[in-house]
């Protein structure tokens, strides 16, 4: 499609949920697939919910993931400004145009009057009061007040809102790229506020006006916005922009790990899993969360995982870098049903991307973590540690936490195999093996392996009689990298010290 233009339009009301990131990703993929433009627009019309730092957070998250806007607050463009608060002056013109055309009206109801009406309706058993065709002639607005009085109130500066006048008994229909034909009865829709009393537009008016003025061709957003689209279709019609109405695509929900209900930030806190791209720190501990980046995810793994939350290429292929996702993406292959947030799958993706990353690339990511922990080793040593551990970790901090024994003495020993197989009388034999290894001129993995094998053959020992104790002595656990490679990395002196301490500790554990 020529001149494809899509936008990601988050509100800076806090941390960007991972569902929002997926929306940004799908918009980006479609734009790049069609050779179009990906726009970042900050929808900050609701200043009461504005959170300082949220806009910077959004931009940093997109930058970390490599979803780079072609137009937006930080890069500019021909259709700016890209913050709605900076476009405030233009929205009133369109709200007044709706009034002039008979498709909207002034509403002078005060918040207190509206609350009183809601309470009145609740008392009647109606708990879902709507300001719509059934009540508008009972309210204080330009449909029930004379023209002279309306003019007088406007001249006097009486606060007002402008509401869309939704018609009765009409069918509002549009095509959705994911859900096909969608229809609403206009009788189900309320007369939504277009312009608030403070002169700021609501999401609905600003969204449509900006999409039109920015020449947006596709609107891709979460399914929670599907009901609002009926109002937007009416706005395109009433403003005379039907020919410019974009194509719509409403994405399925991201569901809790159980599959029951929408994934929320509280699920992240409750389950100890990330549901935000980056960490978010707030004065309120309940609103502070750890993000994918700080868990130790690679951005490529996060993108790959998110892409599959609602989309499938239709093949058995699971691994897609960003440029490969661009080539494979198709809106027609986005599902209607919700996608379960499978954190185990996310971890698996991350593990695979770590395994397939170069040591040099991983060093750039692990080194700052090491410095922050006060772990001071050469780049060459860190790189060798990464090489030994990369198939045994799931997150970047695991290199330093799971593989801590590569940087400090063993903290404790896995006791079960020691209690089961260690015999104190073996100590003298193992001390002899240690002496043989320390005597090696070349303390490399191959020489260590040959020495150990020769020793086992001489004493009639199998691998199961020797290697578990060497591994536990080096790392404190039966898990970990190859024994011979680990010994080479640690060096002769360190191996001598660790194994000497281990043999004594094994006797103590066995005798306890």
Summarize the structure.
With 512 residues, the chain is mainly α.
Structure explained in plain terms:
This protein is mainly alpha-helical and 512 residues long. Helices cover 45% and strands 9% of the residues. It has 21 helices and 11 strands. It has helices at residues 18-33, 54-65, 88-100, 111-123, 147-155, 203-213, 226-238, 265-271, 292-295, 299-307, 322-328, 343-355, 359-372, 379-389, 398-401, 415-421, 427-438, 445-459, 463-475, 483-490, 492-511; strands at 5-8, 37-40, 104-107, 161-164, 171-176, 180-185, 193-195, 218-222, 247-251, 254-255, 339-340. The strands form 5 sheets. The protein has a 3-stranded antiparallel sheet with strand order 3-4-7. Helix 6 packs across helix 7 (226-238) and helix 16 (415-421) crosses helix 21 (492-511). The longest helix has 20 residues, at 492-511.
Helices and strands in order:
Layout: E1 5-8, H1 18-33, E2 37-40, H2 54-65, H3 88-100, E3 104-107, H4 111-123, H5 147-155, E4 161-164, E5 171-176, E6 180-185, E7 193-195, H6 203-213, E8 218-222, H7 226-238, E9 247-251, E10 254-255, H8 265-271, H9 292-295, H10 299-307, H11 322-328, E11 339-340, H12 343-355, H13 359-372, H14 379-389, H15 398-401, H16 415-421, H17 427-438, H18 445-459, H19 463-475, H20 483-490, H21 492-511
Parallel strand pairs: 1-2, 8-9, 10-11
Antiparallel strand pairs: 3-4, 4-7, 5-6
Helix pairs in contact: 1-11, 6-7, 10-12, 13-14, 16-21, 17-21, 18-20, 19-21
For the structure shown, list the relevant keywords:
three-stranded antiparallel beta sheet; 45% helix; 512 residues; mainly alpha; single chain
